[in-house]
Amino acid sequence: MKRHFFFVSGWLSLGLGAIGAFLPLLPTVPFVILAAFCFAQSSPRLEAWLVEHPTFGQHIVAWREKGAISRKGKVAASIAFAVSIVAALIFAPWPWSMAPVVAAAVTGSWIWTRPEG
């Protein structure tokens, strides 16, 4: 039962990561890292596929070994936060327009305190 939970969670995380490649509000790499964790608990073959993936593998390994986020990843996250903030300020009514500002401040400050891999 636990293995099935992690297997389904891994695919859901990977799906959210894929969606995040196109939506600025949804990050890609954290969901892929979560998928790798879930697949490590349920499917060693899928975990190996993610760890060896040419795009995501280095991010997964850096996170596992050092808790590191690349400079490029930090900049990409900051740009995504900026786009989300601008969109919210244009389209969302007060006070909802402040939600991305708060999320960016909290999450962005955490991201920028991580070591770089």
Question: Any overview of this molecule?
Answer:
This protein is mainly alpha-helical and 117 residues long. It has two domains: 2-66, no CATH class; 71-113. Helix content is 74%, strand content 0%. It is built from six helices and no strands. The chain has helices at residues 2-20, 29-42, 44-51, 57-66, 71-91, 99-113. Helix 1 packs antiparallel against helix 2 (29-42) and helix 5 (71-91) runs antiparallel to helix 6 (99-113). The longest helix is centred in the last third of the chain and has 21 residues, at 71-91. The chain is globular. The N and C termini lie far apart (35 Å). The model has no long low-confidence stretch (mean pLDDT 90).
Q: Which overall shape is indicated by the principal axes computed on the Cα atoms?
A: globular
Q: Termini separation (Å)?
A: 35 Å
What count of domains describes the coordinates?
2
Instruction: Estimate percent helicity.
Output: over 70%
Q: How many strands in all?
A: 0
| Rounded radius of gyration (Å) | 16 Å
- The tally of helices reads 6
Q: Provide the β-strand percentage band.
A: under 5%
